[in-house]
Design goal:
about 525 residues; alpha/beta; 6-stranded mixed sheet; 5-stranded mixed sheet; 12 helices; elongated
């Protein structure tokens, strides 16, 4: 029985973005290259491209000898572990490709081995050639030993290895959530403040960009990307937090931060609980509100509740101001250097404090124990005339060995660990740390404790990317990958109201109007 070696790779310049794969079949005994395959796929994710490369390699081997045994070698730990049956395949785009790959040869005739990227250069080169051809509007065809063309391929490959997070999951991304993600998150104090599903990486444009082979798919991430998206985070990733405001801008902020419930909020799905005949509350400056047939009533201030449910516990969520790591998009969780605010971050905290003082609705201040949140909280609390209570449960995610690194640096040093982390919220970062699932469990318990302790009150929580995105995700009943579809800026304000019946209403997200000149 003949034995073949199949080496395959795939990548995406943008994730998702222009994608391609490469595969090479060689004789297991002689090492002779028997066939090559490559194809430009159009827009796809890294993981889709890698699975397509695997499928092409198996089909090419089958065409050479349907009775052969095949040993697959890839630098994508995700694909190798999933096809070996050791990891679950969760993403809907991956399942049919994996099933199709399993059908090419009978069970037991294909084995899988992970290899370092440096040992998969042939398939990687073919994948790059396919993407280069696609950029020219062509399909791939075998090329000769053109030194200049090879140099260009290497240069473009180097550029493709750069990755950015939008998340969960982050100062980092969303996706990503630390100063790096969101996606994903996210994913970032990379909290990420990678901040941040799929994962932070998927949520941000360019997050998780092509590393030849094995790069994390950003699913559907990445959204913020983005942030994602892969079920990753979102990155955080997203997933770098770029500071974009919610679509409603200043009007949305004013509505949530002092103008009371709005008629728009009473729409189905808005989470309002206004009984029939209750007063419509108009936007700020539009005059007092009047129920039909009754005397004019004065407008309420702050985040208010409908009378049938009583006053909710309202958590106003303030992300800390910038640290020196924030502009660099570095993972900055609870296991790193614990940086203080930069001068820009202190100015952001002062502006947030002034905005909250104008609203006049905050009755208590609770903060994460980390230095950046404590400093932000003290600035705000001093302006409001309140004390700061420390809550351990509000700390940022611990990012293990990734603390202090950018998403791109993690991508280069720990590509397989990052790929697994972006694909599964139960996976921890390299060297330990905390998974997004563990973070969510901690945040959920902290939320329940604070809501019970502050029923009917408005409480300011000064915390990080991942905790804030997680609170929003839980309030919406969204999946973990949504972390990487959110963008959360430094010193931004969000708000969630929690009612007596157990329901929650997201009132505001990522408002930065107070930071504008």
């Amino acid at each position: 029985m003949r034995e073949f070696i199949v080496e395959a790779d795939g990548g995406s310049r943008g994730n998702p973005g222009p994608a391609g794969y490469g595969a090479v079949v060689s004789d297991a005994v002689t090492g002779e290259t028997l066939a090559e395959a490559a194809e430009y796929l159009g827009v796809a994710t890294n993981n889709v491209a890698e699975y397509r490369g695997l499928l092409a390699g198996l089909r090419t081997a089958h065409a050479l000898d349907p009775g052969a045994r095949v040993h697959v070698r890839m630098d994508s730990k995700l694909v190798v572990e999933q096809m070996s049956g050791r990891w679950k395949i969760k993403h809907p785009d991956m399942k049919p490709l994996a099933a199709e790959a399993n059908r090419v040869f009978p069970p037991g005739r294909v084995t899988y081995e992970w290899i370092p990227r440096a040992q998969n250069t042939h398939a990687d080169r073919l994948a790059n050639e396919a993407m280069d051809a696609g950029a020219r509007g062509e399909q791939w065809s075998a090329s000769g030993d053109d030194v200049e063309a090879e140099a260009l391929r290497e240069a473009s490959g180097a550029a493709r290895t750069r990755a950015a997070v939008t998340a969960v999951s982050s100062d980092a991304a969303p996706g990503v959530p630390g100063d790096a993600a969101a996606a994903a998150a996210g994913a970032a104090d990379a909290g990420t403040d990678v901040t941040a599903g799929e994962r932070a990486a998927e949520s941000a444009p360019g997050a998780g960009e092509r590393r030849p082979g094995g790069a994390a798919e950003q699913r559907p991430p990445g959204s913020a990307a983005p942030v994602v998206p892969a079920d990753a985070a979102a990155v955080a990733a997203g997933a770098a937090d770029a500071g974009t405001d919610v679509a409603a801008g200043d009007r949305a902020a004013e509505s949530a931060l002092g103008a009371g419930d709005r008629a728009a909020e009473s729409a189905p799905g808005a989470g309002e609980r206004r009984p029939a005949g209750a007063a419509e509350q108009r936007p700020s400056g539009s005059g007092a509100t009047r129920p039909t047939g009754s005397a004019e009533q004065s407008r309420t201030r702050g985040w208010s509740a409908a009378p049938d449910m009583g006053a909710p516990a309202t958590l106003v969520l303030l992300r800390h101001g910038e640290t020196p790591l924030t502009p660099q998009k570095r993972f900055s969780g609870s296991g790193g250097t614990d940086p203080s605010l930069s001068e820009a971050g202190r100015e952001q905290a002062r502006r947030a404090a002034a905005a909250l003082a104008r609203r006049g609705t905050v009755q208590a201040v609770v903060a994460s124990p980390l230095a950046r949140t404590q400093e932000t909280a003290r600035i705000v609390a001093a302006r409001l005339g309140l004390d700061v209570t420390v809550e351990e449960g509000l700390r940022e995610t611990h990012f293990g060995a990734w603390e202090g690194l950018t998403f791109g640096e993690v991508h280069e040093r720990y590509p397989d660990d990052l790929s697994a982390w972006l694909d599964d919220p139960d996976v921890r970062p390299t060297g330990g740390g905390e998974s997004f699932a563990e973070t969510a469990t901690r945040i959920e318990a902290t939320r329940d404790k604070l809501v019970a302790a502050h029923a009917g009150r408005t409480v300011l929580l000064v915390t990080h990317v991942t905790p804030i995105k997680t609170l929003i995700r839980l309030a919406l009943g969204a999946p973990p990958k949504s972390l990487f579809r959110m963008e959360l800026s430094a010193a931004s304000l969000s708000a969630v109201a929690y009612y007596a019946d157990g329901n929650a209403s997201v009132r505001l997200f990522n408002d930065t109007s107070h930071l504008r000149p």
